[in-house]
Structure to design on (676 residues):
DNA sequence: TTGTACGCGTTATCAG
DNA sequence: CTGATAACGCGTACAA
């Protein structure tokens, strides 16, 4: 099946003994083209499987109808779920989506940003890597008039940018309040890496829920970990090391980490294990398979976060919102009781 | 920050009072350009943040250095894991990757294929949707000389194409053999949707392991389900409905389904529950949190499947392998004991 | 060593 | 109703 000559407009035109412009117009259903001519052209195009070259169109139109997404990790369900929200809306408005993962590395993120810039995406949605402190690779986009929406992960506080974020404060507040209503007074908080700045918001939600409900706060009930299992165990050991302040409940910043914690407590046969009630962020589908599941989960609605991000981005692309009129959208969490 | 004039080669040339071609050559480090000129051009390009327009280059070079990936679902860890293998290798050879999900719908898959075709990807890696029977949308690629590698999911038997598949036969064989070695004689097989054709391979692996080890086969020990929990429960009820043929072990085609099965058996307090040993395909990371985990998992090495797919695709792109010299690569599974 | 001219595939303008 | 022509941004033979 030789294919020396790609099927282009010119090729069709030669076959049909017409001009390239007529062929183009016929295919695009211009009203000024004779019906019979249209038929001929369109049939020939179909038979020869003519496929318009998007690069040529992009070049001409000076836009690509492509949205770029950069996210840290496709193995994290939060992000894959968020994509669904983006995709659906983008498609609906005639945009395609390029998904790429930074693996939480700054260098990789920069590389991906450059590639998307060269591809002249019409907009970028990004959840920054945990290493990202410098934003030059992203400023470039705005410098070229390409809108960027930061989502899921909050960049440094004083950065002027468009953001769509989960309401971490409210999520942690809900969780803590729920546990208080279940008569817990010693509620521990297990936080995440401090450089991920939603850690603070969640902590504040926890603190405020305590305060608003008249439960006293105790630093012995707070510990931090990262995504490393051993560090989580250390943190848990810490939390449970004060006999006069033994936690009866636990709020954790992320579910898999919570699972590690539960597993550990169970493994050491913690005396009050069966009374301890836990809540984590995530609402992982696997919870239904656990024998000692968390009492509830903070559902972060990542699809909705993605949807809000793409909606905002499309408004920016269509200039319904000024590029430098920075928006901040918060998506509320929901408490799901198991 | 106005940006009326996009920074193009022409723009740079005017600024520098040189010709466009000189600028182009300088940026591409042509040996025929004076060192001093190069310096000037490159500095100016950097200062003005010149970013080459990929559409223009694609048009000129008649290729995009982009690989398209279509897969059914980003929520399935098998597929997201497989992407890692593809990405790494593609990047290394200067290719970028466009990931898109068909949501296991034929129409969506067709739509995505068309868009990738228009984008003139240099190659396509696809795990077909479960609805895909017709392959015209994929033939188009080969018709235009663009190689396609089918991976993870096996298209209909008599389709001539390049394939990279998990060795499902071997995986099921390993699992069954392992259970036999642990003295099981009544090993049930829980298969998946019949239209997903690896179901047959796995069943054959099961059968052959039985035969090779002198264990008799019994149809009462075989049932099929899909991804619906209720159907799984029905299948399990079926398997355990013959008192004279009660399974003591179970091989399941996919882990989440196996978890449903285990959960059900536990919920009804099946008398010999604690003796039953199970193995499923997947090796899900959450297994470590289960109280009654499968005794082992069939690790399908999706990263390796992805890696083999991209390697093959690159060979096809580089014409190291003829487009119509169809290849079939099998990636072995590994048994992981928990 | 640098510049000129052309073409990649498409669409839009304007003339016929 | 149809066709010639220019332009989008870039790379490269060929000319100077």
């Amino acid at each position: 099946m030789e294919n020396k000559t790609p099927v282009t407009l010119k090729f069709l035109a030669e076959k049909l003994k017409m001009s390239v412009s007529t062929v183009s117009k016929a295919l695009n259903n211009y009203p000024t083209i004779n019906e019979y001519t249209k038929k001929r052209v369109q049939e020939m195009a179909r038979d020869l499987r003519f496929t318009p070259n998007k690069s040529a169109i992009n070049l001409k139109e000076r836009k690509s109808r492509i949205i770029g997404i950069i996210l840290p990790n496709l193995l994290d369900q939060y992000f894959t779920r968020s994509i669904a929200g983006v995709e659906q809306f983008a498609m609906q408005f005639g945009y395609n989506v390029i998904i790429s993962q930074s693996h939480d590395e700054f260098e990789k993120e920069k590389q991906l940003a450059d590639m998307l810039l060269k591809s002249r995406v019409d907009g970028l949605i990004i959840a920054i890597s945990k290493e990202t402190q410098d934003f030059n690779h992203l400023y470039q986009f705005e410098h070229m008039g390409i809108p960027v929406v930061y989502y899921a992960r909050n960049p440094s506080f004083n950065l002027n940018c468009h953001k769509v974020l989960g309401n971490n404060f409210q999520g942690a507040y809900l969780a803590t309040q729920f546990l208080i209503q279940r008569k817990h007074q010693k509620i521990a908080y297990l936080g995440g890496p401090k450089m991920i700045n939603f850690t603070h918001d969640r902590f504040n939600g926890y603190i405020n829920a305590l305060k608003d409900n008249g439960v006293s706060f105790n630093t012995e009930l707070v510990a931090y970990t990262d995504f490393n299992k051993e560090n989580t165990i250390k943190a848990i050991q810490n939390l449970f090391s004060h006999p006069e302040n033994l936690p009866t409940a636990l709020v954790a910043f992320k579910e898999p980490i919570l699972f590690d914690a539960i597993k550990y407590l169970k493994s050491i046969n913690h005396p009050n294990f069966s009374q301890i009630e836990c809540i984590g962020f995530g609402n992982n589908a696997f919870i239904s398979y656990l024998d000692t599941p968390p009492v509830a989960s903070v559902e972060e609605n990542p699809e909705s976060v993605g949807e809000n991000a793409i909606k905002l981005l499309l408004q920016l692309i269509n200039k319904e919102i000024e590029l430098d009129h920075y928006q901040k959208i918060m998506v509320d969490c929901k408490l799901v009781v198991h």
